[in-house]
Amino acid sequence: MTLQKPALFWQHVLAIGWLGLVLVLGASAVWLPLPYPPATSDALALSSPPQWDGALSAPHWLGTDALGRDVLTELIYGCRTLLLVSLPATLLLTAVGIWLGSVAGYWATTGLRWARRYWLALAGFLLCTVANVPLLRIGVGTALLPWLLWSGLCASLAWLLGYSRWWRQPGAFPIDSLVLGSAALLGSVPRLVLVLAIAAVLPLSFISMPLLLGLTCWPGMMRLVRAEVLRIRQLPYIEAARALGLPNRRILARHILPGLWPVVRAAFPFYLTLIVTTETTISFLGVGLPAETASWGHLLSTARLAPTNWWLIVFPGFCLVGTIISLRFLAQKPVFSVPILK
Amino acid sequence: MLRQILTSTLSAWIIASIIFLLSRSMSPANGESLGLDEHMPGTTVLTPAQQQAARQQLQSRLGLHQPLFYFSLSAPTSRAGMFLPRLIWHGQANQYHAWAEDLLQGQMGISYRNGVPVADLLATALPRTLLFTVPAALAAAALALLLAIRLAARPWWRPVVLHLLVLLDSIPLFLLALLLLLVLANPDVLTWFPAYGMGDAEGLAGWDWLLNTAYYLMLPMLSLVLVTLPGLTVQLEAALQRELTMDYVTTARAKGLSIRQIIRQHTLRNAIFPLLTLLADLLPAVLAGAVVVEVIFALPGMGRLLSDAATARDYPVLLGALLVILVARLVSYILADAAYRIADPRLQQSTT
Description:
CATH architecture of the largest domain in chain A: Orthogonal Bundle
CATH topology of the domain at 119-350 in chain B: MetI-like fold
Mean pLDDT of chain A: 82
Helix content of chain A: 55-70%
Strand content of chain A: under 5%
Mean pLDDT of chain B: 79
Largest sheet of chain B: 2 strands, antiparallel
Largest interface: A-B, 56 and 65 residues
CATH topology of the largest domain in chain A: MetI-like fold
Radius of gyration of chain B: 27 Å
Number of helices of chain B: 12
Shape of chain B: globular
CATH class of the domain at 119-350 in chain B: Mainly Alpha
CATH superfamily of the largest domain in chain A: MetI-like
Strand order of the largest sheet of chain B: 1-2
Number of helices of chain A: 14
Structural class of chain B: mainly alpha
Order of helices and strands of chain B: HHEEHHHHHHHHHH
Number of strands of chain A: 2
Low-confidence stretches of chain A: 334-342
Radius of gyration of chain A: 26 Å
Number of domains of chain A: 2
Oligomer: heterodimer
Helix content of chain B: 55-70%
Order of helices and strands of chain A: HHEHHHEHHHHHHHHH
CATH superfamily of the domain at 119-350 in chain B: MetI-like
Number of strands of chain B: 2
């Protein structure tokens, strides 16, 4: 279908090949026989241009930056950072987006209906969890015991209220407006500024960085999934499934989720490019990952010290743009063919 | 309309509050990273008591001695209330209340780094940023409009330009700015433009000042325009192409109008709606882009302030800059809403 034209086919092969290269290099970076280890400076070769002759025992093939770090090594370890930060972040944002989007879309018109006693228990549970979080600073033991006790109390309260008729009746919760509201909240600041502000406050590492990126960038994915669920929900086979008496959870998991696959598959590479761009940008600004971890953004930020050293801009820049363009191809949206006038 | 303004204001307030509470709860309350280290070179060695006194003085000057929020939770004291976290009510004497009160009076606190009021910093930085972001946003919108109108008529160079736009769209802003710097402000290649700074515009006035400023701000503006242009153009062009499939276009063709006349006079007004939403996001997006551009071209504006505050953990400045961006977004939403009303008379009639 999309692979009819030979040019398009070759573009596809190139895209897959480049991404495969990045994947393999990133996964095997630790075991590769590189002449220079990462984050160490070669004091004899500060900002030296790329050298190919064998005068040195181990030449800097792609040159070094102003601190004497080998560009090739930093590039390959940058692939590793890409795999360890951007990929988990995108997986997280996809998971959050699918989960919130499908729940919000499925119960958009009716609201999430659940017995009133369960709502009460849930509210109590959340309240006691929030109240106990500050106590964690004093000690896990002092926080855990009251938390367990109060959760148990909430559960037994729900069980006891089961005898009352009013508490057994379902109450609707407008989950849709809650999800859309929090998406609007996150969207009220430009993404880069929000991530920058939070990154300044919280210390970032390989764990907190994907968490931060994933938990702030989900609204776009959520909107896509929600719109698709709203569409699928109207289809006759869902009506048939409901007429058969299947529970909502089963309808969602077995009949709606598989239908979301094309949307998610097209959106995933696109959001990966967004995350890669954001990550390299905040690393470039010097706020992101610690300065000694290799990232293409860090490498490009060293080019600011010496703007005339072209090899510091061209090689990482090529890697970055190549990755983003390849991912756009995989998105398989009609990127290069705009709708045709009939 | 009013409802939208209210909800946007509310969400701006919530975001600012969250960042404030996060920053204060993470902030160095004991003054260690506020320049009160044990052995600072060139100072007399302080006794621990003196250090303690200095810390307390600093904390009370920055208002950090008060509790953070209206209430706080702490571990139970007596055995009787063992399973009940103790809730302490602080009343209005807390940091959040003081911050909010100051903010409503227009005071945004004092920079941790150099002791200058944040409002003054913002007041000097904001005009410099607007000086090149607003022309950049206007130029991007105008160029996108022109280019999309030309492209929609399907000239032979349309595929080439579209491919170029997609390529341009996949270059991140900071890389684009670096490339421009490398090519156009490099003594080895071309030195058309200065590499950094705003120039020395002290004794200049009128046209000279304008030309000098434009000369120095050309590269930052160019990078912002180039990075926002592809998205706008492709969207508007696609909208125009969709409109061109409509029946009224066929009628207009049958009447004998040329394709350019149809595009300019019939389809453009319908196709511009998706662009208006994008334009509402353009001002905040360009302000965010200014963060990157100002760092690269060493311009002393809002974005530079924001990123410096982020790297130095200067929270009052960070919050102030964040608030300015939130307000800019609010303003651009209101403007977009007004633009919708002008572009679509149906909206006017339905609400009044």
